[in-house]
Every structure is written in C-alpha cells, then in structure tokens.
Amino acid sequence: MPRHRDILLHNAVKDLSAEHDVLAIYLAGSLAKGNFDEYSDIDLHTVVIPERKADYLKGKMKRATGWGNAVFHEDHHSSSPYIVTHYDTFVKVDSWYHSPEAVVPSIWMKGIEILYDPFTIMSQVVEASADYVY
Fold first, then answer.
1. pLDDT > 70: what percent of the chain?
2. 91 near 39, Cβ under 8 Å?
3. pTM of the entire structure?
C-alpha cells in the first residue's frame, strides 16, 4: 500500500501544481508528521485563489478521480471544503481546498509538510506557527 499511496500523492501534486489558480499544496496528518503506518491515508490540502475556490469545490470529485482508480467518494457535496476518495488500492485521500485567508498560523500548522509553495504562503504560516504551544 505505501507504494500505491506514493503514486496517488505524486499524481495529485502533479495535477494540482500545474494549475495557475493553485497557490500552495501541503500534507497534514500522520504522513506529514512521520508517524504513519502502511494503512495511513493522505491528508492533502490545496490553497487556491479565492475567486476560484467554488469551482474547485464543485469539481473536486472529478479531480480526485483523475489521480487514480477511484471506487467511491464521501462528503462530495459541492459546498463541502473537502472530499474523501477511496481508491481500488485501498488507499484513501482526504483532499481539502482552502482560500489563502483561511490558512492562518496555529498549533495545527506546526506538523505539516509543504509540497508546493511558490508564493511562500505556507512557509510564512509554518514560521509564524513555530512558537505556538499546546
């Protein structure tokens, strides 16, 4: 499963980073923190320009289907900021879409892994989150 997870993640980042409306991509959860196991899912977050966020939410099911052989989707309502996609490899991707103003420093931003950040949006958030203590 880890190999299949890596392929799905690669496909997703390649797809999303090719879009000019995508400002940043980052991982959260166990993969980002390094405490994953072979059954861990992918918690993928994408920051898009505010004017296009609604379009990304409407097309999130079709987009996630393009990353691999999707079996079914959870939470695919067009107003939901995320979708959970289950693939035939038994890997699951939880993909979230955010506008830049929603991505703010917090304790939760300390354990992320930045995958794409050409405008240093996420780098700034991670740096500002460094002093947060739980």
1. 100
2. no
3. 0.93
